[in-house]
Amino acid sequence: MAGIYLHIPFCKSRCTYCDFYTGINESQMDAFVDALCTEAALRREEANEPIGTIYFGGGTPSRLHRNHFEQIFDTLYRYYPIAPAAEITVEANPDDLTDAYAEMLGSLPFNRLSMGIQSFDNSELQFLNRRHTAQEAIDAVRRCQQWGFDNISIDLMYGLPGQSTALWQHNLEQAVALNIQHISSYHLIYEERTRMYRLLKTGRITPVSEETSREMFAMLIDRLTAAGFIHYEISSFAREGFFSRHNSAYWKDVKYIGLGPSAHSYNGKSRSWNVRSIVRYNKSGENGLFEREQEQLSLQERYNEFILTGLRTMWGIDLQKLKGRFGEELHDYCLENARRYIDQRLLQTEKGTLKLTREGIFISDGIMSDLMRV
Ligand code: SF4
Predict the structure, then answer these.
(1) Could you tell me the pTM of the whole model?
(2) Domains located in the chain, CATH noted
(3) Residue 65, φ and ψ in degrees, nearest 5
(4) Radius of gyration of the chain (CA)
(5) Handedness of CA 329, 334, 337, 338 (dihedral sign)
(6) Ligand 1: nearest atom to the Cα of 18
(7) How far is the CA of 92 from the centre of ligand 1 (A)?
(8) What pLDDT, in 10s, does the model give residues 354-372?
(9) Are the C-beta atoms of 76 and 4 separated by less than 8 Å?
(10) Taking a C-beta distance cutoff of 8 angstroms, is the pair 4, 259 a contact?
(11) How many CA atoms lie less than 13 Å away from 201 in the CB half-sphere?
(12) From the CB of 15, is ligand 1 less than 6 Å away?
Protein backbone atom coordinates (compact mmCIF):
# COMPACT_ATOMS: atom_id res chain seq x y z
CA MET A 1 0.00 0.00 0.00
CA ALA A 2 1.18 3.51 -0.78
CA GLY A 3 0.01 6.91 0.43
CA ILE A 4 -0.99 10.23 -1.09
CA TYR A 5 -0.29 13.52 0.65
CA LEU A 6 -1.97 16.72 -0.60
CA HIS A 7 -0.53 20.02 0.53
CA ILE A 8 -3.19 22.75 0.76
CA PRO A 9 -1.20 26.00 1.09
CA PHE A 10 -3.79 28.40 2.53
CA CYS A 11 -4.28 29.77 6.03
CA LYS A 12 -6.51 32.57 7.24
CA SER A 13 -3.63 34.01 9.27
CA ARG A 14 -0.11 33.00 10.17
CA CYS A 15 0.64 31.31 13.54
CA THR A 16 3.74 32.66 15.26
CA TYR A 17 5.63 29.34 15.37
CA CYS A 18 4.83 27.95 11.92
CA ASP A 19 7.24 27.64 9.01
CA PHE A 20 5.14 25.44 6.73
CA TYR A 21 4.71 26.62 3.19
CA THR A 22 1.40 28.47 3.26
CA GLY A 23 -0.06 31.87 2.37
CA ILE A 24 -3.13 33.90 3.22
CA ASN A 25 -4.18 34.92 -0.31
CA GLU A 26 -7.16 32.66 -0.96
CA SER A 27 -8.00 34.31 -4.29
CA GLN A 28 -5.76 31.68 -5.93
CA MET A 29 -7.70 28.76 -4.51
CA ASP A 30 -9.66 27.76 -7.62
CA ALA A 31 -6.55 27.88 -9.81
CA PHE A 32 -4.64 25.91 -7.18
CA VAL A 33 -7.22 23.11 -7.06
CA ASP A 34 -7.14 22.92 -10.87
CA ALA A 35 -3.33 22.66 -10.77
CA LEU A 36 -3.45 20.07 -7.99
CA CYS A 37 -5.82 17.90 -10.01
CA THR A 38 -3.63 18.28 -13.09
CA GLU A 39 -0.59 17.16 -11.11
CA ALA A 40 -2.54 14.22 -9.66
CA ALA A 41 -3.62 13.11 -13.13
CA LEU A 42 -0.11 13.48 -14.59
CA ARG A 43 1.54 11.45 -11.84
CA ARG A 44 -0.94 8.56 -11.79
CA GLU A 45 1.67 6.16 -13.22
CA GLU A 46 3.65 6.48 -9.99
CA ALA A 47 0.94 4.62 -8.07
CA ASN A 48 1.77 1.04 -8.92
CA GLU A 49 0.17 -0.34 -5.79
CA PRO A 50 -3.13 0.32 -3.97
CA ILE A 51 -3.43 3.61 -2.10
CA GLY A 52 -3.98 2.85 1.58
CA THR A 53 -3.97 6.39 2.95
CA ILE A 54 -4.82 9.88 1.72
CA TYR A 55 -3.89 12.87 3.83
CA PHE A 56 -5.04 16.46 3.23
CA GLY A 57 -2.48 18.59 5.11
CA GLY A 58 -1.19 22.09 4.91
CA GLY A 59 -1.70 24.88 5.44
CA THR A 60 -5.30 24.59 6.38
CA PRO A 61 -7.31 22.21 4.21
CA SER A 62 -10.47 23.37 6.00
CA ARG A 63 -10.21 26.62 4.03
CA LEU A 64 -11.34 24.65 0.94
CA HIS A 65 -14.99 24.57 -0.10
CA ARG A 66 -17.17 21.59 -0.95
CA ASN A 67 -16.67 21.98 -4.71
CA HIS A 68 -12.88 21.91 -4.23
CA PHE A 69 -12.99 18.68 -2.24
CA GLU A 70 -15.36 17.12 -4.77
CA GLN A 71 -13.08 18.04 -7.65
CA ILE A 72 -10.06 16.56 -5.84
CA PHE A 73 -11.84 13.34 -4.86
CA ASP A 74 -13.23 12.91 -8.39
CA THR A 75 -9.67 13.14 -9.72
CA LEU A 76 -8.14 10.82 -7.13
CA TYR A 77 -10.81 8.14 -7.51
CA ARG A 78 -10.59 8.39 -11.28
CA TYR A 79 -6.84 7.96 -11.58
CA TYR A 80 -5.65 6.07 -8.49
CA PRO A 81 -6.39 2.58 -7.14
CA ILE A 82 -7.76 3.74 -3.79
CA ALA A 83 -8.20 0.82 -1.40
CA PRO A 84 -11.82 0.39 -0.22
CA ALA A 85 -10.82 0.79 3.45
CA ALA A 86 -8.31 3.60 2.86
CA GLU A 87 -7.70 5.97 5.76
CA ILE A 88 -8.64 9.46 4.51
CA THR A 89 -7.65 12.32 6.81
CA VAL A 90 -8.33 16.03 6.65
CA GLU A 91 -6.57 18.58 8.82
CA ALA A 92 -8.96 21.25 10.08
CA ASN A 93 -8.79 24.34 12.22
CA PRO A 94 -11.41 24.60 14.98
CA ASP A 95 -12.65 28.02 13.82
CA ASP A 96 -13.55 26.61 10.39
CA LEU A 97 -15.60 23.75 11.86
CA THR A 98 -19.05 25.30 11.94
CA ASP A 99 -22.03 22.97 12.00
CA ALA A 100 -22.46 23.29 8.24
CA TYR A 101 -18.76 22.69 7.55
CA ALA A 102 -18.54 19.65 9.84
CA GLU A 103 -21.63 18.21 8.19
CA MET A 104 -20.11 18.83 4.76
CA LEU A 105 -16.85 17.08 5.72
CA GLY A 106 -18.86 14.17 7.11
CA SER A 107 -20.64 13.76 3.76
CA LEU A 108 -17.31 13.39 1.88
CA PRO A 109 -15.08 10.28 1.94
CA PHE A 110 -13.12 11.52 4.99
CA ASN A 111 -12.98 9.04 7.87
CA ARG A 112 -10.38 10.79 10.04
CA LEU A 113 -10.11 14.36 11.27
CA SER A 114 -6.96 16.02 12.60
CA MET A 115 -7.50 19.28 14.48
CA GLY A 116 -4.79 21.81 15.29
CA ILE A 117 -5.84 22.84 18.79
CA GLN A 118 -2.39 23.33 20.42
CA SER A 119 -3.63 24.63 23.81
CA PHE A 120 -6.74 24.99 25.96
CA ASP A 121 -5.59 28.28 27.43
CA ASN A 122 -6.76 31.49 25.77
CA SER A 123 -3.66 33.52 26.52
CA GLU A 124 -1.44 30.79 25.05
CA LEU A 125 -3.67 30.60 22.00
CA GLN A 126 -3.37 34.37 21.53
CA PHE A 127 0.38 34.21 21.91
CA LEU A 128 0.52 31.52 19.22
CA ASN A 129 -1.80 33.67 17.05
CA ARG A 130 -4.29 30.86 16.79
CA ARG A 131 -7.70 31.96 15.56
CA HIS A 132 -9.84 30.10 18.07
CA THR A 133 -10.48 30.13 21.80
CA ALA A 134 -10.26 27.11 24.06
CA GLN A 135 -14.06 26.84 24.23
CA GLU A 136 -14.39 27.08 20.45
CA ALA A 137 -11.97 24.18 20.08
CA ILE A 138 -13.90 22.06 22.57
CA ASP A 139 -17.20 22.90 20.82
CA ALA A 140 -15.68 22.04 17.42
CA VAL A 141 -14.61 18.58 18.63
CA ARG A 142 -18.08 17.90 20.05
CA ARG A 143 -19.73 19.08 16.85
CA CYS A 144 -17.59 16.78 14.70
CA GLN A 145 -18.33 13.88 17.03
CA GLN A 146 -22.04 14.63 16.61
CA TRP A 147 -21.63 14.61 12.84
CA GLY A 148 -20.25 11.09 13.03
CA PHE A 149 -16.46 11.49 13.19
CA ASP A 150 -15.24 8.67 15.42
CA ASN A 151 -11.55 8.97 14.58
CA ILE A 152 -10.40 12.40 15.72
CA SER A 153 -6.85 13.50 16.41
CA ILE A 154 -5.76 16.76 17.98
CA ASP A 155 -2.38 18.51 18.08
CA LEU A 156 -1.11 19.88 21.37
CA MET A 157 2.01 21.94 21.92
CA TYR A 158 4.15 22.18 25.05
CA GLY A 159 7.31 23.93 26.20
CA LEU A 160 5.94 27.37 25.35
CA PRO A 161 7.82 30.32 26.89
CA GLY A 162 6.44 30.94 30.37
CA GLN A 163 4.27 27.81 30.31
CA SER A 164 3.94 26.31 33.78
CA THR A 165 3.64 22.61 34.46
CA ALA A 166 0.25 23.36 36.07
CA LEU A 167 -1.00 24.87 32.83
CA TRP A 168 0.36 21.94 30.84
CA GLN A 169 -1.44 19.57 33.21
CA HIS A 170 -4.64 21.54 32.59
CA ASN A 171 -4.18 21.16 28.81
CA LEU A 172 -3.63 17.43 29.18
CA GLU A 173 -6.73 17.00 31.37
CA GLN A 174 -8.82 18.88 28.87
CA ALA A 175 -7.50 16.78 25.99
CA VAL A 176 -8.29 13.54 27.83
CA ALA A 177 -11.81 14.76 28.63
CA LEU A 178 -12.63 15.15 24.93
CA ASN A 179 -12.98 11.42 24.37
CA ILE A 180 -10.93 11.49 21.19
CA GLN A 181 -8.90 8.70 19.64
CA HIS A 182 -5.50 10.24 18.89
CA ILE A 183 -3.21 12.99 20.21
CA SER A 184 -0.03 14.32 18.59
CA SER A 185 2.01 16.46 20.91
CA TYR A 186 5.14 18.41 20.09
CA HIS A 187 7.56 20.58 22.00
CA LEU A 188 7.73 24.10 20.57
CA ILE A 189 10.57 24.40 18.05
CA TYR A 190 11.99 27.81 17.22
CA GLU A 191 12.03 27.58 13.43
CA GLU A 192 14.15 30.24 11.78
CA ARG A 193 11.58 31.73 9.46
CA THR A 194 9.02 32.43 12.20
CA ARG A 195 7.93 35.31 14.36
CA MET A 196 8.57 33.13 17.41
CA TYR A 197 12.22 32.83 16.39
CA ARG A 198 12.54 36.61 16.05
CA LEU A 199 11.00 37.09 19.52
CA LEU A 200 13.58 34.67 20.89
CA LYS A 201 16.51 36.29 19.10
CA THR A 202 15.53 39.77 20.28
CA GLY A 203 15.28 38.58 23.87
CA ARG A 204 11.55 39.20 24.20
CA ILE A 205 10.81 35.63 25.22
CA THR A 206 12.76 33.07 27.21
CA PRO A 207 12.59 29.37 26.37
CA VAL A 208 11.63 26.92 29.10
CA SER A 209 14.53 25.17 30.80
CA GLU A 210 15.63 21.68 29.80
CA GLU A 211 14.37 20.35 33.13
CA THR A 212 10.92 21.80 32.49
CA SER A 213 10.85 20.39 28.95
CA ARG A 214 11.72 16.99 30.25
CA GLU A 215 9.17 17.18 33.05
CA MET A 216 6.46 18.19 30.58
CA PHE A 217 7.33 15.30 28.28
CA ALA A 218 7.16 12.90 31.23
CA MET A 219 3.77 14.37 32.22
CA LEU A 220 2.54 13.89 28.66
CA ILE A 221 3.55 10.23 28.57
CA ASP A 222 2.26 9.46 32.06
CA ARG A 223 -1.10 11.19 31.73
CA LEU A 224 -1.99 9.88 28.30
CA THR A 225 -0.91 6.31 28.94
CA ALA A 226 -2.84 6.37 32.24
CA ALA A 227 -5.87 7.45 30.20
CA GLY A 228 -5.52 4.40 27.94
CA PHE A 229 -3.59 5.90 25.03
CA ILE A 230 -0.75 3.88 23.52
CA HIS A 231 2.49 5.79 23.09
CA TYR A 232 3.32 4.38 19.66
CA GLU A 233 5.68 7.06 18.36
CA ILE A 234 7.70 9.72 20.17
CA SER A 235 5.06 12.42 19.60
CA SER A 236 2.00 10.25 18.94
CA PHE A 237 -0.54 8.63 21.22
CA ALA A 238 -3.58 6.65 20.16
CA ARG A 239 -6.28 4.40 21.46
CA GLU A 240 -6.04 0.78 20.31
CA GLY A 241 -6.89 0.53 16.63
CA PHE A 242 -6.47 4.26 15.98
CA PHE A 243 -2.79 4.64 15.11
CA SER A 244 -2.40 7.08 12.23
CA ARG A 245 -1.92 4.77 9.28
CA HIS A 246 -0.62 7.61 7.14
CA ASN A 247 2.09 8.68 9.58
CA SER A 248 2.94 5.07 10.44
CA ALA A 249 3.60 4.55 6.74
CA TYR A 250 6.24 7.32 6.82
CA TRP A 251 7.96 5.55 9.69
CA LYS A 252 7.74 2.16 8.02
CA ASP A 253 9.39 3.14 4.75
CA VAL A 254 6.19 3.03 2.69
CA LYS A 255 6.09 4.93 -0.63
CA TYR A 256 4.06 8.13 -0.89
CA ILE A 257 3.18 10.65 -3.54
CA GLY A 258 3.14 14.29 -2.40
CA LEU A 259 0.95 16.64 -4.44
CA GLY A 260 0.87 20.44 -4.17
CA PRO A 261 3.52 23.13 -3.64
CA SER A 262 6.38 22.08 -1.34
CA ALA A 263 5.00 18.52 -1.00
CA HIS A 264 7.58 15.74 -0.69
CA SER A 265 7.40 12.31 -2.32
CA TYR A 266 9.28 9.08 -1.69
CA ASN A 267 9.43 6.03 -3.95
CA GLY A 268 11.65 3.74 -1.88
CA LYS A 269 14.86 4.84 -3.63
CA SER A 270 14.64 8.58 -4.13
CA ARG A 271 12.99 11.58 -2.57
CA SER A 272 11.56 14.52 -4.47
CA TRP A 273 9.92 17.80 -3.55
CA ASN A 274 7.71 20.21 -5.42
CA VAL A 275 8.42 23.89 -5.95
CA ARG A 276 7.72 25.99 -2.85
CA SER A 277 5.71 28.71 -4.60
CA ILE A 278 1.99 28.72 -5.30
CA VAL A 279 2.43 31.17 -8.18
CA ARG A 280 4.90 28.87 -9.94
CA TYR A 281 2.89 25.81 -9.01
CA ASN A 282 -0.33 27.23 -10.48
CA LYS A 283 1.57 28.26 -13.60
CA SER A 284 2.77 24.65 -13.95
CA GLY A 285 -0.86 23.60 -13.78
CA GLU A 286 -1.47 25.58 -16.97
CA ASN A 287 1.36 24.08 -18.98
CA GLY A 288 1.61 20.68 -17.27
CA LEU A 289 5.32 21.11 -16.46
CA PHE A 290 5.57 20.78 -12.70
CA GLU A 291 8.85 21.80 -11.09
CA ARG A 292 10.18 19.07 -8.84
CA GLU A 293 13.64 18.47 -7.47
CA GLN A 294 14.85 14.98 -6.82
CA GLU A 295 17.64 13.30 -4.92
CA GLN A 296 18.71 9.70 -5.22
CA LEU A 297 19.26 8.23 -1.76
CA SER A 298 22.52 6.35 -1.20
CA LEU A 299 22.55 3.12 0.79
CA GLN A 300 23.95 5.03 3.75
CA GLU A 301 21.23 7.70 3.56
CA ARG A 302 18.55 5.03 3.44
CA TYR A 303 20.18 3.29 6.41
CA ASN A 304 20.15 6.58 8.37
CA GLU A 305 16.50 7.10 7.51
CA PHE A 306 15.72 3.53 8.61
CA ILE A 307 17.37 4.15 12.00
CA LEU A 308 15.73 7.53 12.47
CA THR A 309 12.22 6.46 11.62
CA GLY A 310 12.40 3.00 13.22
CA LEU A 311 13.67 4.18 16.58
CA ARG A 312 10.92 6.79 16.82
CA THR A 313 8.29 4.09 17.11
CA MET A 314 7.33 1.51 19.70
CA TRP A 315 8.07 -1.21 17.12
CA GLY A 316 11.72 -0.17 16.97
CA ILE A 317 14.23 -1.42 14.41
CA ASP A 318 13.83 -4.91 12.99
CA LEU A 319 17.42 -6.18 13.05
CA GLN A 320 16.86 -8.94 10.48
CA LYS A 321 15.33 -6.44 8.10
CA LEU A 322 18.23 -4.08 8.73
CA LYS A 323 20.73 -6.79 7.81
CA GLY A 324 18.75 -7.88 4.75
CA ARG A 325 18.34 -4.39 3.43
CA PHE A 326 21.65 -2.75 4.28
CA GLY A 327 24.09 -5.64 4.71
CA GLU A 328 26.13 -7.13 7.50
CA GLU A 329 28.50 -4.21 7.87
CA LEU A 330 25.85 -1.58 8.63
CA HIS A 331 23.98 -4.05 10.82
CA ASP A 332 27.13 -4.58 12.92
CA TYR A 333 27.85 -0.84 12.94
CA CYS A 334 24.39 -0.23 14.38
CA LEU A 335 24.75 -2.86 17.11
CA GLU A 336 28.26 -1.76 18.00
CA ASN A 337 27.08 1.81 18.56
CA ALA A 338 23.97 0.64 20.36
CA ARG A 339 25.99 -1.40 22.88
CA ARG A 340 26.70 1.33 25.42
CA TYR A 341 23.09 2.50 25.33
CA ILE A 342 21.91 -1.06 25.89
CA ASP A 343 24.28 -1.28 28.87
CA GLN A 344 22.87 2.01 30.23
CA ARG A 345 19.31 0.70 29.69
CA LEU A 346 18.51 3.46 27.24
CA LEU A 347 18.04 0.95 24.41
CA GLN A 348 16.76 -2.60 24.63
CA THR A 349 16.70 -5.58 22.31
CA GLU A 350 13.52 -7.60 22.26
CA LYS A 351 12.47 -10.37 19.86
CA GLY A 352 14.94 -9.33 17.20
CA THR A 353 14.20 -5.61 17.47
CA LEU A 354 16.11 -2.68 18.89
CA LYS A 355 14.00 -0.10 20.75
CA LEU A 356 14.25 2.92 22.99
CA THR A 357 13.47 2.31 26.64
CA ARG A 358 11.31 4.79 28.54
CA GLU A 359 14.50 6.53 29.75
CA GLY A 360 15.99 6.45 26.26
CA ILE A 361 13.01 8.32 24.81
CA PHE A 362 14.12 11.45 26.67
CA ILE A 363 17.45 11.57 24.85
CA SER A 364 16.33 9.94 21.62
CA ASP A 365 17.90 12.57 19.33
CA GLY A 366 21.39 11.87 20.67
CA ILE A 367 20.96 8.10 20.48
CA MET A 368 19.65 8.22 16.92
CA SER A 369 22.49 10.39 15.73
CA ASP A 370 25.04 8.03 17.32
CA LEU A 371 23.53 5.09 15.45
CA MET A 372 23.46 6.92 12.16
CA ARG A 373 26.48 6.93 9.89
CA VAL A 374 27.83 10.25 8.66
S1 SF4 B 1 0.14 26.19 12.17
FE2 SF4 B 1 -1.36 25.51 10.68
S3 SF4 B 1 -2.93 27.13 10.73
FE4 SF4 B 1 -1.11 28.01 11.65
S5 SF4 B 1 -0.02 29.04 9.96
FE6 SF4 B 1 0.82 26.95 10.15
S7 SF4 B 1 -0.30 25.71 8.73
FE8 SF4 B 1 -1.49 27.61 9.06
Answers:
(1) 0.96
(2) 2-251 (3.20.20.70), 299-371 (1.10.10)
(3) -105, 170
(4) 21
(5) negative
(6) 6
(7) 10
(8) 999 999 999 999 999 999 9
(9) yes
(10) yes
(11) 9
(12) yes
